[in-house]
Amino acid sequence: MNPLPVRSLWLALSLTAACGTAPAAESPARDDIFRAAGPSEFILLTARGELVSADIEPERVVGPDVNLGVYAADRGRGGQTVRGVAFDRVVNVTATAHGAAGIVGAMPLDLSVTRADTGLRARGLLAGALSDYRLDERQLTGTIGRCSYELTRTGRTYEGSRRCEGQPHRVSVLLPRGLSSWSDAALAATLGLLLGA
């Protein structure tokens, strides 16, 4: 999905919040944003009006703040390489069967990724920040980069609180179905880049 319609909805959401009307988490614009989302769109929307959106396909992640390509890793290494730019930082990360390693900006990314019966867990460094997070069909929880999440799945979205160096606030995250075709390590690294910025 082209991110422009969602960006225009974000502008409406920002104007609504600036005028002091209903909180963004309860605004009709919030429902409009999620209703407008295509099947391959990732969306993070906070109660303060912050919006991150990206179209996620098997070989790319593209949005207003991110432009990443997903490639077969160099011969002999196996796995996938994620390269491009995310939030004004150069990304070059290789995902293998057991984890992901590389750089984000000038900082290291080094994640160990394991799968349990219900989901996956990633532990290590994400852009130089200690991280430990879990994703399954019911929850998205843990520390991702500079932010901590406590989200529970409600319908299509994960809902709950996020804290990034301040007071916690409400947040909603929509994960596209297409992510299920990615390797666990590539998925964990990409989610880390989108959620830990």
What does the secondary structure layout of this molecule look like, with pairings?
Layout (H helix, E strand, L loop, with lengths): L3 H15 L9 H9 L4 E6 L4 E7 L2 E4 L2 E7 L7 E7 L2 E7 L3 E6 L2 E9 L3 E8 L2 E8 L2 E6 L2 E8 L2 E7 L5 E6 L9 H12 L2
Antiparallel strand pairs: 1-2, 1-14, 2-3, 3-4, 4-5, 5-6, 6-7, 7-8, 8-9, 9-10, 10-11, 11-12, 12-13, 13-14
Portion in strands: over 45%
Strand segment count: 14
What value does the average pLDDT take?
82
Rg is 16 Å
Number of domains: 1
Structural class: alpha+beta
Question: Number of helical segments?
Answer: 3
- What is the overall silhouette? globular
Order of helices and strands: HHEEEEEEEEEEEEEEH
Helical proportion, percent range:
10-25%
Report the end-to-end length measured between terminal Cα atoms. Answer: 22 Å
**Main β-sheet description:** 14 strands, antiparallel, barrel
Low-confidence stretches are 1-28
Strand arrangement, largest sheet?
1-2-3-4-5-6-7-8-9-10-11-12-13-14
What does this structure look like?
This protein is of the alpha+beta class and 197 residues long. It has 3 helices and 14 strands. A hairpin with a 2-residue loop joins strand 2 (51-57) and strand 3 (60-63). Mean pLDDT is 82; it is low at 1-28. The protein is globular, with a radius of gyration of 16 Å. The longest helix has 15 residues, at 4-18. It has one domain.
